[in-house]
Each structure stands twice: as C-alpha cells, then as structure tokens.
Amino acid sequence: MDFDNTGNVFINGRAQILEMFQYLTAEEQARLLKQIKPRNPQLAQELQETSISFNLLTELPEHTIEVVLRYVKAPILGVALKSVGVKAQRKILGVCERGYAEEAFKVMNTRLSNESRDVERACERIRSIMSALSKKKLIQL
Fold first, then answer.
1. Element (H, E) at 76
2. What are the residues facing 2 on neighbouring strands?
3. Three-state SS annotation for 121-138
4. Which of 60, 71, 80, 96 could make an SS bond with 100 (beta carbons 3.0 to 4.6 A apart)?
5. Helices (H), strands (E): how many in the chain?
C-alpha cells in the first residue's frame, strides 16, 4: 500500500493485477490478455511473463517442449519433474532423446537432502528459460 498527498491509502493496481492473474485458468488468462493487449501491450507482456510456470511445459506441444529442453540440462529437468504427476513426467521424458531422458529419470528418482528447495529452484530455472525463449519469439506460449 502507498499513501497519496492527503494521507489516504491507495492500492497499487498493477501489482494486484499481476498477483490475481496467477490464479486464473489458462483460458481466462488468454481471454484477458486478448482484451488488454490492444490497450496496454506492456501490461499484457508483464501478465504473460508472470503466468509462465513449470507446469505450463507439460501443456505445450511436443515441438515446443523440444525447443525448451535444448536449453535445460538433464539433471535440472529430473529435479523439476519431481513436482508433476506421472502422466506429465512420461510426456516430457517421451519427447527427450533416450540418453537425456535416462539421465533426467535417474535424477528424478534420486532422493535429495533438501528436495523441496531444489525442486522449486529447478522449476524456476526452467520457467525463466521458457520466459526468455518466449521474449525472443523462439517459442509460442
């Protein structure tokens, strides 16, 4: 919260929108982005970047997953895959080359000392890669 000249409290609308956007479904996000983009392209871009999560990777087409994984090391993918279900794990690993998939699978099934922190970091790393690739127009999210 911030205060204006009269001492009244006002709320940062941009920050609220960015936060609320994360709770919308993918369909609702797409509809909202379509409406915002013509009026405020910068806000639309910010909203799109904040909506990217590791779970989005599991919903992408195989050719897009392949592009993303070119920039991700197998151990990082293996750790991140601990955060999703078996069906999503199979989909992602099925897109990978055999050696890469085996290495990621091995790490995925290894117990880590601080697993929750490491999984969160791996997911964030992949999320940032997807965001960068999207900005460079190498992938369509």
1. helix 74-80
2. 10
3. HHHHHHHHHHHHHHHCCC
4. 96
5. 9, 2
- Write out pLDDT tens, residues 52-84: 778 888 888 999 999 999 999 999 999 999 999
Residue 21 and residue 31: Cα distance in Å, rounded? 11
pTM of the model: 0.72
Q: Residue 31 carries which side chain, given as an amino acid letter?
A: R
Sequence-separated (6 or more) residues with CB below 8 Å from residue 1: 9, 10, 11, 12
Task: Determine the Cα–Cα distance for residues 79 and 121; give it in Å rounded to an integer.
Answer: 9
Q: Six-digit token pair at 38? A: 């013509």
Helix 115-135 / helix 62-69 crossing angle, nearest 10 deg = 110
Distance between CA 116 and CA 114 in Å, rounded? Answer: 6
pLDDT in tens, 87-112: 999 999 999 999 999 999 999 999 99
Report residue 68 CA to chain centroid gap: 11
Looking at beta carbons, which pairs linking 3-9 to residues 24 or more positions away fall under 8 Å? none
